[in-house]
């Protein structure tokens, strides 16, 4: 039996679905924008605007994403996803900042990616651990 709090958390709502799909679309835009300079595709400034747009989309979606997780660990992971959006937004600032080095934005891109990957991979384990903990009691 799954705890009713976990069922409520896993039950998709319209707001949750919109923020989830929006954040995923924004992350795809960010990753495509990061590939453009490597592949030498697109214009000189196209990747900058795509990166900034993707970072803005992810940040807005993470701000409005519901934080109603059943456990403290799951809430912490949700906040970590928010901070990955903030890190990508800071990277978007360095894309346009004239005194920044040519690869300063790359450090923020990678840091945001590491935060997002960890939070995304640890969330199912946190929810499954909560379910197992409830069964033992």
Key features of this structure:
137 residues; single chain; mainly alpha; 5 helices; elongated
Please characterize this protein's 3D structure.
The chain has five helices and no strands. It has helices at 4-10, 14-39, 46-64, 72-96, 104-136. Helix 2 packs antiparallel against helix 3, helix 3 (46-64) packs antiparallel against helix 4 (72-96) and helix 4 runs antiparallel to helix 5 (104-136). The two termini are 12 Å apart. 28% of the residues are buried.
**What's the overall geometry?**
elongated
Number of strands: 0
Quaternary structure state of the chains depicted: single chain
Order of helices and strands: HHHHH
Question: What is the gyration radius calculated from CA atoms?
Answer: 17 Å
Largest sheet: none
Q: What is the helix tally?
A: 5
Structural class: mainly alpha
The percentage helix is over 70%
**Low-pLDDT residue intervals, each spanning 5 or more residues:** none
Task: State mean pLDDT (0 to 100 scale).
Answer: 85
Strand content: under 5%
First-residue to last-residue Cα separation? 12 Å
Could you write a compact summary of the structure shown?
The protein is mainly alpha-helical and 137 residues long. It has helices at residues 4-10, 14-39, 46-64, 72-96, 104-136. It is elongated.
Draw up the topology in text.
Blueprint: H1 4-10, H2 14-39, H3 46-64, H4 72-96, H5 104-136
